[in-house]
Amino acid sequence: MKLNVRWSCLLCLVLIGIAIEGVQCKVVQFIFGDSLSDVGNNMYLSKSLAQANLPFYGIDFGNGLPNGRFTNGRTVADIIGDSTGLPRPPAFLDPSLTEDVILESGVNYASGGGGILNETGGYFIQKFSLWKQIELFRGTKELITNKLGKQATDKFMGEANFVVALGSNDFINNYLMPVYSDSWKYNDQTFVQYLMETLQNQLLVLHNLGARKLMVFGLGPMGCIPLQRVLSTTGQCQERANKLAISFNKAASQLLAGLDSRLPNASFMFGDAYDVVDNVIRNPKNYGESVLRKN
User: Fold this and answer.
1) Could you say which DSSP state residue 30 is in?
2) Which residue positions does the secretion signal occupy (predicted)?
């Protein structure tokens, strides 16, 4: 089952509108995320069970064949770049990636199934968690420093846009599944706190590595995705998952506001589109759909 194509694209556009409002985008992007932003990294992870190689993936992109994106067309990361006039960052594992390509287009480290926590999505066998993506970015910065020198690299990183868009897998493919120990080690409140403590440490590491313009995306109504609806005998949204998304967004918004106020020469912002996306789901006719299909 998959989300209706137009709903998926609209979700991307809504998130972008929030992200770019009041932000001057410069040079390149460094993308950290999950399947919403993966442009092919998992395609190069041969043992990964999170693969976008099924029918319908890629049908509206390029030659119409699967290309590593978990969507019919462009990902959130693709649309952000296109909407701001920036190049689309290639996947980190793309064999054609070089220092010159990085300087021209940035890098996308996003990985389907990845989460804020290392343990999230473990049954996918291979995926990049956010910690792993940050580690890969550290190596990228070393390459650029060797090529440009420290001063030029600091300027390059300072002008780049950093996008962090993940978190739903930490609930759907971790906390809400009893096969993971996190599901019984925490309750709803303490698990969100655990995520925020981890995310704060990760964002501070990115800041130490040169990130000065950073946007963290919140979660949409994840209880309404097909994977959650199928768990209900009525096919309706899972309210607990949606409430967890709202709790995550509230905590993340407060976290980003605090970091933005105390980090020197930095702009750390949070993009929350939960209510707008929820309205799309509940009132599809207002957006050109008669029904949000699950096919």
Assistant:
1) E
2) 1-25
Helix (H) or strand (E) holding 185: helix 182-185
Which pLDDT does position 32 carry in this prediction? 98
Range of the domain at 76: 18-286
What angle (nearest 5°) sits at the alpha carbon of residue 102, between those of residues 11 and 45?
65
Angle CA 38–184–180, to nearest 5: 35
Domain-located, residue 96:
yes
- Rounded to 5°, the CA angle 215-83-43 comes to 75
Decide: 120 and 51 in contact? Cβ < 8 Å.
Answer: no
From the CB of residue 2, how many other CB atoms can be counted at a distance below 10 Å?
17
pTM: 0.88
- What gap in Å lies between CA 75 and CA 73, rounded to an integer? 7
Residue 280 belongs to domain with CATH number: 3.40.50
What's the chain's length in residues? Answer: 295
Nearest Cα to Cα of residue 217 among 3, 2, 9, 12: 12
Q: What is the residue whose two structure tokens read 């442009």? A: 39
Q: Give the pLDDT confidence score for residue 160 in this predicted structure.
A: 96
* CB hemisphere CA count around 230 (13 angstroms): 10
pLDDT mean for each 10 residues of the chain (295 residues): 41 45 61 95 95 90 89 85 88 96 96 97 95 98 96 96 96 94 96 98 98 96 88 85 97 98 94 86 78 48
Alpha carbons within 13 A on the beta-carbon side of 258: 12
Kindly state whether residue 64 falls inside one of the protein's structural domains. Answer: yes
Establish if 8 belongs to a structural domain.
Answer: no
* Cα three-residue angle 142-199-177, rounded to 5 degrees: 120
Residue with the two structure tokens 């768990």: 231
Flag whether 10 is in a domain. Answer: no
